[in-house]
Amino acid sequence: MKRLLDHTLRGYGQMLVANNRITGACVLVGMFVLSVEMALMSLGGALLISALALWRAQNDSVLKTGLFSVNGALLGALWYLFPQVPLWAQALATALGCAGMVFFFVPVAERMHEDKSPYVLFSLPYVVAAWAALTALIFFGVHDAELTRGWRALLANRFEKAEKHFLNTEVSTDMAEAYRCAGLGWSLYRRGDQTGAQTAFSRVLSLKIGVADAYDGLGWSRFRQGRYDDAVLAFRRAVALDSFFADSWDGLGWCELQAGHPEEARRHFTTAALCAPLFADAFSGFAATLSGGKAEAYAKAWSGFLSSHLSLTAQFTSTRVLLCWLWFFIGLLFHSRTSALVALVAVLVCMLGSAWRPVFGDPAFAMNVVVLALALGGHYLRLNVKTVMWMLMMTLLLALAWEPLSEALLRVALLPLCLPFNLALLGSLSFFGWLHRRGLSDERIPVDWASCTPADIRCFCAQKEVADGCWERLKKAEPGQPQPKTARSLQLPAKVDLKVNAE
After folding, report:
1. How large is the average pLDDT for residues 427-450?
2. Would you say which domain of life the source belongs to (predicted)?
Protein backbone atom coordinates (compact mmCIF):
# COMPACT_ATOMS: atom_id res chain seq x y z
CA MET A 1 0.00 0.00 0.00
CA LYS A 2 2.86 2.38 0.79
CA ARG A 3 4.43 1.83 -2.63
CA LEU A 4 1.04 2.31 -4.27
CA LEU A 5 0.47 5.65 -2.56
CA ASP A 6 4.03 6.71 -3.29
CA HIS A 7 3.66 6.08 -7.04
CA THR A 8 0.22 7.72 -7.07
CA LEU A 9 1.38 10.95 -5.41
CA ARG A 10 4.43 11.10 -7.66
CA GLY A 11 2.06 10.84 -10.60
CA TYR A 12 0.07 13.85 -9.43
CA GLY A 13 3.34 15.72 -9.01
CA GLN A 14 4.22 14.91 -12.62
CA MET A 15 1.17 16.93 -13.72
CA LEU A 16 3.51 19.84 -13.01
CA VAL A 17 6.64 17.94 -14.13
CA ALA A 18 7.68 17.43 -10.51
CA ASN A 19 8.43 13.91 -9.29
CA ASN A 20 7.65 14.90 -5.71
CA ARG A 21 5.14 13.43 -3.26
CA ILE A 22 4.41 16.72 -1.50
CA THR A 23 3.81 18.43 -4.84
CA GLY A 24 1.49 15.59 -5.81
CA ALA A 25 -0.48 15.96 -2.58
CA CYS A 26 -0.90 19.71 -3.23
CA VAL A 27 -2.09 19.02 -6.78
CA LEU A 28 -4.63 16.50 -5.48
CA VAL A 29 -5.93 18.99 -2.89
CA GLY A 30 -6.28 21.59 -5.63
CA MET A 31 -8.31 19.18 -7.73
CA PHE A 32 -10.62 18.47 -4.78
CA VAL A 33 -11.13 22.23 -4.38
CA LEU A 34 -12.06 22.53 -8.06
CA SER A 35 -14.40 19.52 -8.20
CA VAL A 36 -14.85 16.68 -5.73
CA GLU A 37 -16.35 14.40 -8.40
CA MET A 38 -13.46 15.01 -10.79
CA ALA A 39 -10.86 14.49 -8.06
CA LEU A 40 -12.40 11.18 -6.95
CA MET A 41 -12.56 9.85 -10.52
CA SER A 42 -8.99 10.99 -11.12
CA LEU A 43 -7.77 9.40 -7.88
CA GLY A 44 -9.47 6.15 -8.84
CA GLY A 45 -7.72 6.15 -12.20
CA ALA A 46 -4.33 6.91 -10.64
CA LEU A 47 -4.65 4.17 -8.01
CA LEU A 48 -5.86 1.62 -10.55
CA ILE A 49 -3.11 2.22 -13.08
CA SER A 50 -0.48 2.24 -10.31
CA ALA A 51 -1.73 -1.10 -8.96
CA LEU A 52 -1.83 -2.69 -12.41
CA ALA A 53 1.61 -1.33 -13.29
CA LEU A 54 3.06 -2.74 -10.05
CA TRP A 55 1.71 -6.14 -11.05
CA ARG A 56 2.93 -6.00 -14.67
CA ALA A 57 6.26 -4.19 -14.38
CA GLN A 58 9.43 -6.15 -13.70
CA ASN A 59 10.75 -3.60 -11.18
CA ASP A 60 9.98 -0.22 -9.66
CA SER A 61 12.61 1.76 -11.56
CA VAL A 62 10.15 2.90 -14.23
CA LEU A 63 7.20 3.35 -11.88
CA LYS A 64 9.09 5.62 -9.47
CA THR A 65 9.07 8.33 -12.11
CA GLY A 66 5.32 8.71 -11.62
CA LEU A 67 4.79 8.78 -15.38
CA PHE A 68 2.27 5.94 -15.30
CA SER A 69 0.21 7.26 -12.42
CA VAL A 70 -0.09 10.66 -14.10
CA ASN A 71 -1.68 9.04 -17.15
CA GLY A 72 -4.34 7.32 -15.04
CA ALA A 73 -4.99 10.52 -13.10
CA LEU A 74 -5.41 12.53 -16.30
CA LEU A 75 -7.75 9.94 -17.79
CA GLY A 76 -9.97 10.08 -14.71
CA ALA A 77 -9.97 13.89 -14.78
CA LEU A 78 -10.88 13.92 -18.49
CA TRP A 79 -14.59 13.56 -17.73
CA TYR A 80 -14.66 17.00 -16.13
CA LEU A 81 -14.80 18.21 -19.76
CA PHE A 82 -17.69 15.85 -20.57
CA PRO A 83 -20.19 16.09 -17.67
CA GLN A 84 -22.99 14.84 -19.93
CA VAL A 85 -21.41 11.35 -20.07
CA PRO A 86 -23.10 9.00 -17.53
CA LEU A 87 -21.11 8.16 -14.41
CA TRP A 88 -21.05 4.43 -15.14
CA ALA A 89 -19.61 5.12 -18.60
CA GLN A 90 -16.94 7.39 -17.11
CA ALA A 91 -15.88 4.72 -14.60
CA LEU A 92 -15.87 1.92 -17.18
CA ALA A 93 -13.91 3.95 -19.73
CA THR A 94 -11.37 4.96 -17.06
CA ALA A 95 -10.86 1.36 -15.90
CA LEU A 96 -10.49 -0.06 -19.41
CA GLY A 97 -8.24 2.82 -20.44
CA CYS A 98 -5.92 2.24 -17.47
CA ALA A 99 -5.75 -1.48 -18.23
CA GLY A 100 -4.94 -0.78 -21.87
CA MET A 101 -2.20 1.71 -21.01
CA VAL A 102 -0.57 -0.76 -18.62
CA PHE A 103 -0.75 -3.61 -21.13
CA PHE A 104 0.70 -1.71 -24.08
CA PHE A 105 2.98 0.95 -22.61
CA VAL A 106 4.68 -0.64 -19.58
CA PRO A 107 6.87 -2.92 -21.77
CA VAL A 108 7.67 0.03 -24.04
CA ALA A 109 8.70 2.22 -21.11
CA GLU A 110 10.83 -0.56 -19.60
CA ARG A 111 12.61 -1.10 -22.90
CA MET A 112 13.27 2.63 -23.23
CA HIS A 113 14.62 2.66 -19.68
CA GLU A 114 16.93 -0.30 -20.34
CA ASP A 115 18.26 1.33 -23.52
CA LYS A 116 18.72 4.66 -21.67
CA SER A 117 16.61 6.40 -24.28
CA PRO A 118 16.75 10.21 -24.09
CA TYR A 119 13.03 10.34 -24.92
CA VAL A 120 10.04 10.01 -22.62
CA LEU A 121 6.42 9.02 -23.28
CA PHE A 122 5.13 11.33 -20.53
CA SER A 123 1.34 11.71 -21.13
CA LEU A 124 1.11 10.30 -24.66
CA PRO A 125 -0.54 7.10 -23.34
CA TYR A 126 -3.28 9.24 -21.78
CA VAL A 127 -3.95 10.99 -25.10
CA VAL A 128 -4.26 7.65 -26.91
CA ALA A 129 -6.48 6.15 -24.19
CA ALA A 130 -8.70 9.26 -24.02
CA TRP A 131 -9.22 9.29 -27.78
CA ALA A 132 -9.99 5.57 -27.76
CA ALA A 133 -12.48 6.00 -24.90
CA LEU A 134 -14.29 8.89 -26.58
CA THR A 135 -14.44 7.02 -29.89
CA ALA A 136 -15.88 3.94 -28.16
CA LEU A 137 -18.51 5.99 -26.32
CA ILE A 138 -19.58 7.61 -29.59
CA PHE A 139 -19.65 4.24 -31.36
CA PHE A 140 -21.91 2.70 -28.70
CA GLY A 141 -24.20 5.74 -28.65
CA VAL A 142 -23.38 6.84 -25.11
CA HIS A 143 -21.94 10.19 -26.22
CA ASP A 144 -22.79 12.30 -29.29
CA ALA A 145 -19.92 14.30 -30.76
CA GLU A 146 -22.34 16.92 -32.08
CA LEU A 147 -22.85 18.17 -28.52
CA THR A 148 -19.12 18.79 -28.10
CA ARG A 149 -18.92 20.51 -31.47
CA GLY A 150 -21.87 22.71 -30.55
CA TRP A 151 -20.37 23.96 -27.30
CA ARG A 152 -17.01 24.60 -28.98
CA ALA A 153 -18.74 26.65 -31.68
CA LEU A 154 -20.72 28.54 -29.02
CA LEU A 155 -17.55 29.46 -27.13
CA ALA A 156 -16.11 30.75 -30.42
CA ASN A 157 -19.27 32.90 -30.96
CA ARG A 158 -20.24 30.95 -34.09
CA PHE A 159 -23.90 30.90 -33.18
CA GLU A 160 -25.46 29.57 -36.40
CA LYS A 161 -22.94 26.74 -36.54
CA ALA A 162 -23.52 25.97 -32.86
CA GLU A 163 -27.30 25.81 -33.32
CA LYS A 164 -26.87 23.42 -36.23
CA HIS A 165 -24.79 21.08 -34.08
CA PHE A 166 -27.19 21.27 -31.12
CA LEU A 167 -30.22 20.53 -33.32
CA ASN A 168 -28.44 17.51 -34.84
CA THR A 169 -27.46 16.10 -31.44
CA GLU A 170 -28.93 12.72 -30.54
CA VAL A 171 -29.17 12.39 -26.76
CA SER A 172 -29.75 9.29 -24.68
CA THR A 173 -29.76 10.75 -21.14
CA ASP A 174 -31.46 13.64 -19.36
CA MET A 175 -28.07 15.17 -18.57
CA ALA A 176 -27.09 15.28 -22.25
CA GLU A 177 -30.50 16.75 -23.14
CA ALA A 178 -30.07 19.42 -20.46
CA TYR A 179 -26.69 20.46 -21.84
CA ARG A 180 -28.07 20.45 -25.38
CA CYS A 181 -30.95 22.74 -24.40
CA ALA A 182 -28.62 25.00 -22.41
CA GLY A 183 -26.25 25.41 -25.35
CA LEU A 184 -29.06 25.98 -27.85
CA GLY A 185 -30.73 28.48 -25.54
CA TRP A 186 -27.58 30.53 -25.01
CA SER A 187 -26.89 30.64 -28.74
CA LEU A 188 -30.41 31.96 -29.43
CA TYR A 189 -30.18 34.36 -26.49
CA ARG A 190 -26.98 35.94 -27.79
CA ARG A 191 -28.51 36.31 -31.25
CA GLY A 192 -31.44 38.19 -29.69
CA ASP A 193 -34.11 35.50 -30.17
CA GLN A 194 -35.58 35.64 -26.66
CA THR A 195 -38.66 33.57 -27.50
CA GLY A 196 -36.58 30.72 -28.93
CA ALA A 197 -34.14 30.96 -26.04
CA GLN A 198 -36.90 30.66 -23.45
CA THR A 199 -38.35 27.68 -25.27
CA ALA A 200 -34.98 25.91 -25.20
CA PHE A 201 -34.23 26.83 -21.59
CA SER A 202 -37.73 25.88 -20.41
CA ARG A 203 -37.26 22.38 -21.84
CA VAL A 204 -34.86 21.71 -18.94
CA LEU A 205 -37.69 22.31 -16.44
CA SER A 206 -39.36 19.09 -17.59
CA LEU A 207 -36.24 16.95 -17.05
CA LYS A 208 -35.37 15.01 -13.93
CA ILE A 209 -31.96 16.67 -13.74
CA GLY A 210 -31.10 20.34 -14.10
CA VAL A 211 -28.12 22.32 -15.36
CA ALA A 212 -27.19 25.65 -13.82
CA ASP A 213 -26.33 27.10 -17.24
CA ALA A 214 -29.88 26.51 -18.48
CA TYR A 215 -31.58 28.03 -15.43
CA ASP A 216 -29.22 30.99 -15.57
CA GLY A 217 -30.04 31.60 -19.23
CA LEU A 218 -33.76 31.30 -18.52
CA GLY A 219 -33.42 33.86 -15.75
CA TRP A 220 -31.63 36.41 -17.92
CA SER A 221 -34.10 35.89 -20.76
CA ARG A 222 -37.00 36.60 -18.41
CA PHE A 223 -35.13 39.54 -16.92
CA ARG A 224 -34.83 41.12 -20.36
CA GLN A 225 -38.60 40.86 -20.75
CA GLY A 226 -39.22 42.52 -17.38
CA ARG A 227 -40.52 39.34 -15.73
CA TYR A 228 -38.43 39.86 -12.60
CA ASP A 229 -40.29 37.46 -10.29
CA ASP A 230 -39.95 34.62 -12.80
CA ALA A 231 -36.29 35.54 -13.30
CA VAL A 232 -35.66 35.30 -9.55
CA LEU A 233 -37.09 31.76 -9.49
CA ALA A 234 -34.80 30.70 -12.34
CA PHE A 235 -31.71 32.28 -10.79
CA ARG A 236 -32.43 30.62 -7.44
CA ARG A 237 -32.65 27.23 -9.14
CA ALA A 238 -29.26 27.88 -10.73
CA VAL A 239 -27.49 28.77 -7.46
CA ALA A 240 -29.18 25.80 -5.76
CA LEU A 241 -27.40 23.54 -8.27
CA ASP A 242 -24.09 25.43 -8.17
CA SER A 243 -23.54 27.80 -5.27
CA PHE A 244 -20.48 29.28 -7.04
CA PHE A 245 -22.45 30.32 -10.15
CA ALA A 246 -21.57 34.03 -10.09
CA ASP A 247 -23.72 35.02 -13.07
CA SER A 248 -26.90 33.91 -11.30
CA TRP A 249 -25.97 35.68 -8.07
CA ASP A 250 -25.41 38.76 -10.20
CA GLY A 251 -28.85 38.29 -11.78
CA LEU A 252 -30.46 38.04 -8.35
CA GLY A 253 -28.78 41.30 -7.41
CA TRP A 254 -30.15 43.14 -10.43
CA CYS A 255 -33.63 41.72 -9.79
CA GLU A 256 -33.56 42.95 -6.19
CA LEU A 257 -32.31 46.32 -7.39
CA GLN A 258 -35.25 46.57 -9.79
CA ALA A 259 -37.57 45.69 -6.90
CA GLY A 260 -36.15 48.57 -4.83
CA HIS A 261 -34.20 46.47 -2.30
CA PRO A 262 -30.63 47.87 -2.44
CA GLU A 263 -29.44 46.12 0.74
CA GLU A 264 -30.50 42.69 -0.51
CA ALA A 265 -29.08 43.49 -3.95
CA ARG A 266 -25.74 44.48 -2.40
CA ARG A 267 -25.58 41.14 -0.60
CA HIS A 268 -26.13 39.24 -3.86
CA PHE A 269 -23.56 41.34 -5.73
CA THR A 270 -21.05 40.71 -2.95
CA THR A 271 -21.66 36.97 -3.21
CA ALA A 272 -21.17 37.15 -6.99
CA ALA A 273 -17.86 38.98 -6.51
CA LEU A 274 -16.72 36.39 -3.98
CA CYS A 275 -17.59 33.56 -6.40
CA ALA A 276 -15.85 35.28 -9.35
CA PRO A 277 -13.44 38.02 -8.18
CA LEU A 278 -12.85 39.24 -11.76
CA PHE A 279 -16.53 39.63 -12.71
CA ALA A 280 -16.97 43.27 -13.80
CA ASP A 281 -20.79 43.30 -13.78
CA ALA A 282 -20.89 42.29 -10.12
CA PHE A 283 -18.81 45.34 -9.14
CA SER A 284 -20.92 47.53 -11.41
CA GLY A 285 -24.06 46.34 -9.63
CA PHE A 286 -22.40 46.80 -6.24
CA ALA A 287 -21.65 50.42 -7.18
CA ALA A 288 -25.30 50.92 -8.18
CA THR A 289 -26.41 50.00 -4.65
CA LEU A 290 -24.27 52.74 -3.09
CA SER A 291 -25.27 56.36 -2.72
CA GLY A 292 -22.09 58.13 -3.73
CA GLY A 293 -18.77 58.38 -1.91
CA LYS A 294 -15.36 56.84 -2.51
CA ALA A 295 -16.65 53.26 -2.33
CA GLU A 296 -18.92 53.81 -5.33
CA ALA A 297 -16.13 55.49 -7.32
CA TYR A 298 -13.69 52.67 -6.54
CA ALA A 299 -16.24 49.99 -7.50
CA LYS A 300 -17.02 51.71 -10.81
CA ALA A 301 -13.33 52.19 -11.60
CA TRP A 302 -12.53 48.54 -10.85
CA SER A 303 -15.50 47.37 -12.92
CA GLY A 304 -14.39 49.52 -15.86
CA PHE A 305 -10.85 48.20 -15.63
CA LEU A 306 -11.99 44.56 -15.62
CA SER A 307 -14.45 45.00 -18.49
CA SER A 308 -11.87 46.76 -20.68
CA HIS A 309 -8.94 44.42 -20.02
CA LEU A 310 -10.51 40.96 -19.61
CA SER A 311 -12.72 38.90 -21.86
CA LEU A 312 -16.06 37.70 -20.54
CA THR A 313 -14.68 34.15 -20.24
CA ALA A 314 -11.78 35.39 -18.10
CA GLN A 315 -14.15 37.43 -15.92
CA PHE A 316 -16.14 34.29 -15.12
CA THR A 317 -13.05 32.58 -13.65
CA SER A 318 -14.35 30.98 -10.48
CA THR A 319 -12.82 31.33 -7.04
CA ARG A 320 -12.51 27.54 -7.01
CA VAL A 321 -10.33 27.71 -10.12
CA LEU A 322 -8.13 30.40 -8.56
CA LEU A 323 -7.77 28.37 -5.35
CA CYS A 324 -6.93 25.29 -7.41
CA TRP A 325 -4.16 27.22 -9.18
CA LEU A 326 -2.92 28.48 -5.82
CA TRP A 327 -2.54 24.92 -4.53
CA PHE A 328 -0.70 23.99 -7.73
CA PHE A 329 1.69 26.90 -7.20
CA ILE A 330 2.27 25.91 -3.56
CA GLY A 331 3.15 22.41 -4.75
CA LEU A 332 5.63 23.83 -7.24
CA LEU A 333 7.25 25.92 -4.51
CA PHE A 334 7.77 22.76 -2.43
CA HIS A 335 9.51 21.17 -5.40
CA SER A 336 11.58 24.05 -6.72
CA ARG A 337 11.50 27.84 -6.63
CA THR A 338 12.97 27.82 -10.13
CA SER A 339 10.02 25.78 -11.41
CA ALA A 340 7.57 28.14 -9.69
CA LEU A 341 9.24 31.13 -11.36
CA VAL A 342 9.18 29.41 -14.75
CA ALA A 343 5.46 28.70 -14.33
CA LEU A 344 4.74 32.33 -13.44
CA VAL A 345 6.65 33.54 -16.49
CA ALA A 346 4.72 31.12 -18.71
CA VAL A 347 1.40 32.38 -17.31
CA LEU A 348 2.53 35.97 -17.92
CA VAL A 349 3.43 35.09 -21.52
CA CYS A 350 -0.08 33.67 -22.02
CA MET A 351 -1.68 36.78 -20.54
CA LEU A 352 0.35 39.09 -22.78
CA GLY A 353 -0.13 36.84 -25.79
CA SER A 354 -3.92 36.95 -25.44
CA ALA A 355 -3.76 40.55 -26.68
CA TRP A 356 -2.19 39.23 -29.90
CA ARG A 357 -4.08 35.98 -30.44
CA PRO A 358 -7.18 34.85 -28.52
CA VAL A 359 -5.82 31.30 -28.40
CA PHE A 360 -3.51 32.33 -25.53
CA GLY A 361 -6.61 32.86 -23.42
CA ASP A 362 -7.77 29.27 -23.96
CA PRO A 363 -7.19 27.42 -20.64
CA ALA A 364 -6.33 24.17 -22.45
CA PHE A 365 -3.70 25.91 -24.58
CA ALA A 366 -2.31 27.78 -21.55
CA MET A 367 -1.88 24.51 -19.64
CA ASN A 368 0.08 23.04 -22.56
CA VAL A 369 2.35 26.08 -22.59
CA VAL A 370 2.91 26.14 -18.82
CA VAL A 371 3.70 22.41 -18.55
CA LEU A 372 5.99 22.63 -21.60
CA ALA A 373 7.87 25.50 -19.96
CA LEU A 374 8.24 23.43 -16.78
CA ALA A 375 9.49 20.42 -18.74
CA LEU A 376 12.03 22.33 -20.81
CA GLY A 377 12.96 24.82 -18.10
CA GLY A 378 15.39 22.74 -16.10
CA HIS A 379 13.96 19.20 -16.12
CA TYR A 380 14.59 17.80 -19.61
CA LEU A 381 16.76 20.64 -20.94
CA ARG A 382 19.27 22.83 -19.17
CA LEU A 383 17.85 26.25 -18.35
CA ASN A 384 19.89 28.87 -20.20
CA VAL A 385 19.46 31.58 -22.84
CA LYS A 386 19.51 29.06 -25.68
CA THR A 387 16.71 26.91 -24.24
CA VAL A 388 14.65 29.97 -23.23
CA MET A 389 14.70 31.23 -26.82
CA TRP A 390 13.77 27.74 -27.98
CA MET A 391 10.80 27.64 -25.57
CA LEU A 392 9.54 30.99 -26.86
CA MET A 393 9.77 29.71 -30.42
CA MET A 394 7.90 26.51 -29.51
CA THR A 395 5.19 28.59 -27.81
CA LEU A 396 4.78 30.62 -30.99
CA LEU A 397 4.52 27.46 -33.09
CA LEU A 398 1.93 25.99 -30.72
CA ALA A 399 -0.11 29.19 -30.93
CA LEU A 400 -0.11 29.04 -34.73
CA ALA A 401 -0.93 25.32 -34.86
CA TRP A 402 -3.51 25.13 -32.05
CA GLU A 403 -6.59 26.30 -33.94
CA PRO A 404 -5.98 24.22 -37.12
CA LEU A 405 -5.22 21.17 -34.97
CA SER A 406 -8.34 21.72 -32.85
CA GLU A 407 -10.54 22.12 -35.92
CA ALA A 408 -9.11 18.99 -37.54
CA LEU A 409 -9.59 16.87 -34.41
CA LEU A 410 -13.05 18.29 -33.76
CA ARG A 411 -14.20 16.95 -37.14
CA VAL A 412 -13.63 13.46 -35.76
CA ALA A 413 -15.06 14.42 -32.33
CA LEU A 414 -11.68 14.59 -30.54
CA LEU A 415 -9.83 17.29 -28.62
CA PRO A 416 -6.09 18.16 -28.64
CA LEU A 417 -5.79 17.57 -24.86
CA CYS A 418 -2.03 17.54 -24.10
CA LEU A 419 -0.90 16.23 -27.50
CA PRO A 420 0.80 19.55 -28.47
CA PHE A 421 2.86 19.49 -25.27
CA ASN A 422 4.02 15.92 -25.86
CA LEU A 423 4.92 16.57 -29.50
CA ALA A 424 6.80 19.73 -28.55
CA LEU A 425 8.70 17.89 -25.79
CA LEU A 426 9.72 15.00 -28.06
CA GLY A 427 10.60 17.41 -30.86
CA SER A 428 12.77 19.48 -28.53
CA LEU A 429 14.67 16.45 -27.25
CA SER A 430 15.17 15.24 -30.82
CA PHE A 431 16.38 18.65 -32.04
CA PHE A 432 18.91 19.14 -29.26
CA GLY A 433 20.08 15.55 -29.72
CA TRP A 434 20.67 16.35 -33.40
CA LEU A 435 22.69 19.43 -32.41
CA HIS A 436 24.79 17.32 -30.06
CA ARG A 437 25.52 14.80 -32.81
CA ARG A 438 26.78 17.73 -34.90
CA GLY A 439 29.39 18.49 -32.26
CA LEU A 440 27.62 21.06 -30.09
CA SER A 441 27.21 20.74 -26.34
CA ASP A 442 24.35 18.55 -25.18
CA GLU A 443 21.63 20.62 -23.49
CA ARG A 444 19.55 17.54 -22.69
CA ILE A 445 19.30 16.24 -19.15
CA PRO A 446 19.37 12.43 -18.75
CA VAL A 447 15.97 10.90 -18.05
CA ASP A 448 17.52 9.17 -15.01
CA TRP A 449 17.55 12.57 -13.32
CA ALA A 450 13.79 13.04 -13.70
CA SER A 451 13.33 13.01 -9.91
CA CYS A 452 15.73 15.91 -9.38
CA THR A 453 14.94 19.58 -8.96
CA PRO A 454 16.42 22.18 -11.34
CA ALA A 455 18.72 23.28 -8.50
CA ASP A 456 20.06 19.72 -8.12
CA ILE A 457 20.55 19.47 -11.87
CA ARG A 458 22.50 22.74 -11.95
CA CYS A 459 24.73 21.36 -9.21
CA PHE A 460 25.23 18.10 -11.13
CA CYS A 461 26.08 19.99 -14.31
CA ALA A 462 28.60 22.14 -12.46
CA GLN A 463 30.29 19.06 -11.00
CA LYS A 464 30.26 17.47 -14.43
CA GLU A 465 32.07 20.48 -15.86
CA VAL A 466 34.67 20.21 -13.10
CA ALA A 467 35.11 16.50 -13.88
CA ASP A 468 35.50 17.27 -17.59
CA GLY A 469 38.13 19.88 -16.72
CA CYS A 470 40.08 17.28 -14.75
CA TRP A 471 40.01 14.92 -17.72
CA GLU A 472 41.31 17.65 -20.00
CA ARG A 473 44.18 18.34 -17.62
CA LEU A 474 45.05 14.65 -17.51
CA LYS A 475 45.22 14.61 -21.30
CA LYS A 476 47.64 17.50 -21.36
CA ALA A 477 49.76 16.15 -18.51
CA GLU A 478 50.36 12.75 -20.16
CA PRO A 479 50.35 13.30 -23.93
CA GLY A 480 52.06 9.99 -24.63
CA GLN A 481 49.43 7.88 -22.90
CA PRO A 482 46.29 6.57 -24.65
CA GLN A 483 43.55 9.18 -24.41
CA PRO A 484 40.20 8.28 -22.88
CA LYS A 485 37.24 8.72 -25.18
CA THR A 486 34.68 11.07 -23.70
CA ALA A 487 31.54 12.43 -25.28
CA ARG A 488 30.42 16.01 -24.78
CA SER A 489 27.21 15.13 -23.04
CA LEU A 490 25.67 15.43 -19.62
CA GLN A 491 26.43 11.79 -18.69
CA LEU A 492 28.76 11.89 -15.69
CA PRO A 493 32.05 9.98 -15.44
CA ALA A 494 31.71 6.67 -13.69
CA LYS A 495 33.82 7.74 -10.68
CA VAL A 496 31.65 10.72 -9.86
CA ASP A 497 29.21 9.62 -7.16
CA LEU A 498 26.18 11.90 -6.94
CA LYS A 499 23.19 11.09 -4.80
CA VAL A 500 19.83 12.02 -6.28
CA ASN A 501 17.27 13.42 -3.90
CA ALA A 502 14.15 11.54 -5.03
CA GLU A 503 11.90 13.68 -2.91
Report:
1. 83
2. Bacteria
